[in-house]
């Protein structure tokens, strides 16, 4: 066993102080970041919110960015995975699965016990140009939502539940945009009923959306707009 | 003439230093706020960006909040009014006007010479809970977009260009959500072509959207989602 391996074992064995509850601290850090954004939240805010000692937070997460990354993972596990599970239900039609996904988002984005909107969308929008690395990570997460929707549509297309020429990539982008709009409106004070109205509108045109073909969605000439 | 009136005249007559170009300073302040958000932008950042002296900025705008409010007004005049003008063109059908409005937004949100996305949507999302007053002002502005779209649809409905039972309030909310989603995606690195794909998808289902009736959009039971 090398010196490095021994050091690693010792470090592992030493463990963290028993009184530190990592998940509970992460939940509180997540809420701070969600409510105030990455940059407006300081390490001392996080120390206060989590009730942990500063050295404990540094030992566990390295720095504010490390704590933020862990909070993002916590959010994904606690909330984003739920949406994915709703899409994965094989007993639902495509339309039912999409509706369940969006109704759950409408409910979660306006849940009074949580900050409004989607954590990833809110925090990403709040990042200034100076937090390039964190912005990059959030961009990937963001695309994860669109990718989750595209993967779902593709899997149902493979099963023959959507026509072979349904424009699944464009639909996923459109659905992700609707989800982001709902998050912005929730942050702006929209109620669950407001968001449910958007979902109802979406679902009312859903049969037409899935019947679009990729050709139909070629960008149109923008001549009229440019004339103005 | 009272002492107060004389003082007011003298103050007015004195004017501001000739070298201070209010609009140009506002344009630079607007870009700072747009790129970095309200809270992450300090008065010293604004002094540097505008090239004005700090006392000049304080005399002209009072404080950071005053400068921000003036920057919001500047944005509305420079950009938001353009969208309103596209909707107001009487030579366009409802669908053409909506498409012009959204294509112009896709173009502006991804204009390389400006920060990405809509200034109002980006800045509003970036506000922490501590800037309550500014948040309140932005909320009103935000609703202005939805209200602009609703006023447009209502005016065309009054002309008989939309059926009398078309759910204009719901449509305005849905369109505002789409616009907000486009702004979030632009901020996330979407290209004009990406946003144009969303606009094409929207326009492809537009004939079905305007044919919805208010009754059809009553919230559906969410039983399936809750079971999950």
Automatic annotation (TrEMBL), chains A, B:
Record InterPro entries:
Homeodomain-like_sf, HTH_TetR, Tet_transcr_reg_TetR-rel_C_sf, TetR_C
Q: Which Gene3D superfamilies match?
A: Homeodomain-like, Tetracycline Repressor, domain 2
Keywords tagged on the record: DNA-binding, Transcription, Transcription regulation
Q: Is Cytoplasm among the key words of this record? A: no
Describe the location of the HTH tetR-type domain by residue ranges. 19-79
Q: Does the keyword Transcription regulation apply?
A: yes
Q: Name one Pfam family in it.
A: TetR_C_13
Source species, domain of life: Bacteria
Q: What is this protein called?
A: TetR family transcriptional regulator
Origin species: Sodalis ligni
């Amino acid at each position: 066993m090398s010196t490095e391996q021994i050091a690693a074992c010792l470090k592992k064995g030493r463990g963290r102080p028993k009184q530190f509850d990592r998940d509970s601290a992460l939940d509180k850090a997540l809420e701070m970041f969600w409510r105030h954004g990455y940059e407006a939240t300081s390490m001392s805010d996080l120390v206060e919110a989590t009730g942990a000692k500063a050295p404990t937070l540094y030992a566990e997460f390295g720095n504010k960015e490390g704590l933020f990354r862990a909070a993002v993972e916590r959010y994904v596990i606690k909330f984003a995975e739920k949406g994915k599970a709703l899409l994965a239900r094989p007993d639902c039609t495509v339309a039912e699965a999409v509706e369940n996904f969006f109704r759950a988002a409408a409910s979660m984005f306006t849940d009074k016990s949580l900050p409004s909107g989607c954590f990833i969308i809110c925090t990403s929008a709040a990042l200034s140009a100076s937090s390039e690395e964190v912005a990059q990570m959030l961009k990937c997460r963001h695309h994860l939502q669109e990718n989750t929707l595209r993967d779902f549509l593709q899997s149902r297309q493979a099963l023959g539940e959507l026509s072979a020429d349904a424009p699944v990539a464009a639909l996923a982008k459109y659905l992700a945009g609707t989800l982001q709009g709902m998050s912005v409106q929730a942050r702006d004070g929209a109620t669950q009923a407001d968001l449910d109205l958007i979902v109802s509108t979406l679902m009312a045109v859903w049969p037409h959306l899935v019947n679009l073909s990729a050709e139909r969605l070629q960008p149109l000439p923008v001549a009229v707009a440019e004339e103005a």
